[in-house]
Amino acid sequence: MSFHTSNSLFPMTVPIPNGFPVQINSKPKNKIIFLDVTPVSTPIKPHSPNVVAPMRNNLVAPHISNDIIYENIKPVFTLLGIMGVLPITRPSACVNQFQIASSSMLYAILVFLSLVSYVLYLSLHKVQILRTAEGKFEEAVIEYLFTVYLFPMIAVPLLWYETRKIANVLNGWVDFEMVYKQLSGRTLPVKLYKKALAMAVIIPILSTTTVIVTHVTMVHFKPMQLVPYVFLEILTYMLGGYWYLLCETLSICANILAEDFQNALRHIGPAGKVAEYRALWLRLSKLSRDTGIANCYTFTFVNLYLFLIITLSIYGLLSQISEGFGIKDIGLALTAFCSISLLFFICDEAHYASHNVRTNFQKKLLMVELSWMNTDAQTEVNMFLRATEMNPSQISLGGFFNVNRTLFKSLLATMVTYLVVLLQFQISIPDESQNRDEEEEVPYNITSATTEAMTTSTTTIMTTVLTTLAKKKKKN
User: Which domain of life is it from (predicted)?
Assistant: First the structure.
């Protein structure tokens, strides 16, 4: 076997067996790259125990002791766990699970059974509610409202059912953090702990105040009757805060990833780096979809519940608008305002998160300068842009509907339609007070007419008698 070589210092050919040289210049420069497969990470080789590793941003074996996303939202998760609605167990750091046979689940069942028993006790013993509203219709609206206020109890078993999926989403965030640290060399800079702590403190205070104001202005409840309403009011608005933090986390991570991608392309532009960012973005897009799927039934119920509360509250306000705005209408106005605000924030935050994950990232890709990149890197960028088009990142509640500003507009339009129909139906029903006045006026008119007729007939008879007597005297 022989080798053909021409120059040992500057070889223009490659030594190949049997003397068949191949020119280096004749090799194809562009290779086929399978872009739909995530690049395999290089295995980490074991290092000697004598090697000194850096204390921060350890790239040799990146490890996160506590998952950053959970630690940032921990105050809200803790409060929901105390209320017994989100029984997530953490056997170790970065591991989130849902176990039916666990102490947290047993505690959640005891809290829920206590709440249900308390509500049944109040309803079975028929605790009197002294209404301050006047009028049969408004009393009925208030009674319906305070029955609907107890509906969020249904959300507790729904959250139990979806806790396993929520735990899987949190584990997905842990994987995202690990991959991001391997790619960028730093931990994920998410700073939402102060917001979560403020929500865990402020929302219970505001919810309790709202319930007290509503009950004082609309009905007079005993203090023992306020307990279930306060609990369910806090639960409703804490779910809104929990949803806000999830969507805000998606928005922040999408912006961080877009900025890191642009900074990486300014200095170096290999195809492998673009592929790694593409794989990381696909993880983020999947997390945005999983967020909607994991909270599907819970927030579908919350949106419908808020829609019903808003409709009844505004209906009660508009039905008595001709009589003027009174003290009893403060509770209805406050309930309507808070419910509309919560529904808007749920829809707006989901819309903002979807926009940042997809549309904003597409703008970053379109602004990339491709002229100085090689062919492989340009192909990767184009495939990245195509991946953002083919992978939906909208937050959908189990495929029933997308949570965005269009949903808020549709619910308001439907609510206006129902309000117009109900108000027309109310106008067509005659008022009882008017009927009573008409009934009282009818006997009065009949009596007066009869009296006048009797007086007229008596006068005529007397005149006739006197005229006859006068004629008889003249004849005599």
Answer: Eukaryota
Q: Are strands 95-97 and 89-92 parallel, antiparallel or unpaired?
A: antiparallel
More confident of the two residues 458 and 216: 216
Per residue in 127-139, pLDDT tens? 444 444 444 555 6
183 phi/psi in degrees, rounded to 5:
-80, -45
Q: What tokens were used for 309?
A: 């509360």
Alpha-carbon span 67 to 82, nearest angstrom: 21
Distances (CA, A) of 86 to 77, 158, 395: 7, 10, 21
Q: Which long-range contacts (CB under 8 A, 24 or more apart) does 183-191 make?
A: 183/276, 183/277, 183/280, 184/260, 185/57, 185/59, 186/57, 187/64, 187/68, 188/68, 188/69, 188/253, 188/256, 189/256, 190/68, 190/69, 190/72, 190/249, 190/252, 190/253, 190/256, 191/72
CA distances from 238 to 186, 190, 206 (A): 32, 21, 11
Instruction: Answer for the pair 365, 385: CB distance below 8 angstroms, yes or no.
Output: yes
